[in-house]
Amino acid sequence: MRLPSLSTMAEDYVKLIWKAREHGGDGIATRDIAAALRVSASTVSGNLRKLDRDGLIEHTPYYGVVLTPLGQQVAVAMVRRHRLIESFLVSRLGYTWDEVHSEAEALEHAVSETFLDRVDVDLGHPTHDPHGDPIPRADGSVPDSPGALLGTVAPGSCGTVGRVSDDDPSLLRYFDELGVGLGTHLRVEQVRDYAGVIAVSRRSPDGTDTLVDLPSAAAHAIWLTPDAD
């Protein structure tokens, strides 16, 4: 997918806006953009006006931001870049899943389309990145990612971890310590709101189950793909 020539700011903003709606959310507020990009709310407001003027978004103050077709195209292409680079760093350069997000954030603005296409071929056209996020195809379509957020799954439900948010590297490292990663089979045992944990049974490769208390942050960071039965 060939990108028009845009500033790093524009690419970062449209990607962030797209990702906010990727999981069916209501979108993203100015304050959330400011927090994610570590800039002031006034800076965000000014940049949104520029993006609106350039035809990438439609922004109505106090009502929200919507990507235009051009903005959607740019955002999907940037997400594809980011997730292919993450996959390359893990598969070919030995990075761990908690190390790649910041590296990909920097590299996604610099690599050429030729490099990206060759990475895609070298990796065998992967459909999902090291965190289970779908990698948009070259034509802009996005592979399916079935599953539900852990916080919405009822006690007694079973499934495998199909996707994990890469927003917080420290949380990813903690999941490693707990033995929870992509493909891990979990059974939700109990939601202990008073303790801020979700109790799950984690199935080990040898078939034994171990009770694990996941932090409440896991409720918004792990997607479970339900068992077929």
Topology record:
Layout: H1 8-22, H2 30-37, H3 41-53, E1 57-60, E2 64-67, H4 69-93, H5 100-107, H6 113-122, E3 148-149, E4 158-164, H7 169-178, E5 185-192, E6 197-203, E7 209-215, E8 222-226
Antiparallel strand pairs: 1-2, 3-8, 4-5, 4-8, 5-6, 6-7
Report what the structure shows.
It contains 7 helices and 8 strands; from the N terminus they run H-H-H-E-E-H-H-H-E-E-H-E-E-E-E. With 229 residues, it is of the alpha+beta class. It has 2 domains: 1-143, Orthogonal Bundle (Arc Repressor Mutant, subunit A); 148-226, Roll (SH3 type barrels), CATH 2.30.30. It has a 6-stranded antiparallel beta sheet, covered by helices on one side. A hairpin with a 4-residue loop joins strand 5 (185-192) and strand 6. Helix 1 (8-22) crosses helix 4 and helix 2 (30-37) packs across helix 3 (41-53). The longest helix has 25 residues, at 69-93. It is globular.
Please supply descriptive tags for the structure shown above:
Arc Repressor Mutant, subunit A; 39% helix; 8 strands; SH3 type barrels; alpha+beta; 6-stranded antiparallel β-sheet; single chain; globular
